[in-house]
């Protein structure tokens, strides 16, 4: 499939998604109909559009052999396959960490321990799909049948879905075991807090200091993996909510192209920008998870009629020529003008080191690229229209009681004041921005380094976050630093190839944080930092 064909499909789909926004955004209060025939339940058995997902044996690190919570998904699959580990042992090890440390991390707002144990016993008796026996965390805006799904809000605090979201159904069909629901920003807007703004989930690397940003809004799913309470997790992204917590907590997060994964059964934030994707420990785990999640779903029209899902697992396996790691395909990596500016000396040194390491891998070519003069104007103009899109389906709740929105109320009120002509102007800016990016900025490169999630996330293009080192933040000497790679439409495989090669010659992604001091929550009053977000802070940092 050619890049030009992918581009045409993406541009056409992007326009149709914008046109269908009003008709497609449904809220749980009115969405109790059963899934369509061939929807989540039927489609779950057809992983990755009918392709069977297989994971080869990998070398298992000594740390993972000694403690299964250290293992990547691929390492755990290898140990389970060769009966060096049982599903019960793997799940129990993670549940013990949840019981011991989640009072500090506050990564979960629901733990499904009994169901997880039962499923682990079944997996040992009858191993199933590629994720058989693997403990996973699911962000709390995904429908989970019979398990409360709150989106961390007053609006849905008692909502118990009658069925699983497509992504959850596919993980379960592949044998994955959900150990709990990950805490998140209220209605997927900020870092994880209570609905009234009190900070909850911390960065797993700085559990005693809640002022250190853990990334949002998929804060809990990220912390659950970084804190070794789940092998992997799924989050959602509308404005950086997969890549940012991954960068902040030393994970590899992959936000796919719009439509590559279904968001059916996800409490919406923005229909044209919501994405489902994995937060994982390395590129191979991200590829395994996305391979399970990806593929058409009749309940989500954005997933239909797209280019076929490539072999993501193979793309995430490093290629060696002799003893030297090489890129699977020659790849040109674009460096924008702001990549080496506007950051402190420690982060700047890590970015230089990252570029030097990439440049040393045969097949990688580093080039400088430029932004058009109207880049900032276009990104800001289009980004603003997200506010009206999120407000429209929630109007009944705004009329009922604005206090239901808690600390995130301002961003919903802001959406009320955008006029129709502003929305149209924003859509024009989006079309212009897409062409500037695809035909201009990326005309000379295959992937583009980014200083933040914009514009790839708001345009629906794929991006991957990966760790590149550590730097001090305040009194914390070792806080993760990551970077973000953006790609062309439906080219998640290209992003994985670059990440896999880099991770094959570095070890940042294998580092895990020290266990927290369990008494840490008792001393939080003595810690400087924001114990509670104000409405203004929530609006300023909103996705």
Automatic annotation (TrEMBL):
Indicate whether Kinase appears among the record's keywords. Answer: no
InterPro entries assigned: Amidase, Amidase_dom, AS_sf, TAT_signal
Which Pfam family name is an example for this entry? Answer: Amidase
Organism of derivation: Rugosimonospora acidiphila
Q: Which residues form the signal peptide?
A: 1-33
Name the keywords, alphabetized.
Answer: Signal
Its name, as the record gives it, is Amidase
Q: Which residue ranges does the record assign to the Amidase domain?
A: 89-369
Keyword Signal tagged: yes
TM spans (from-to): none
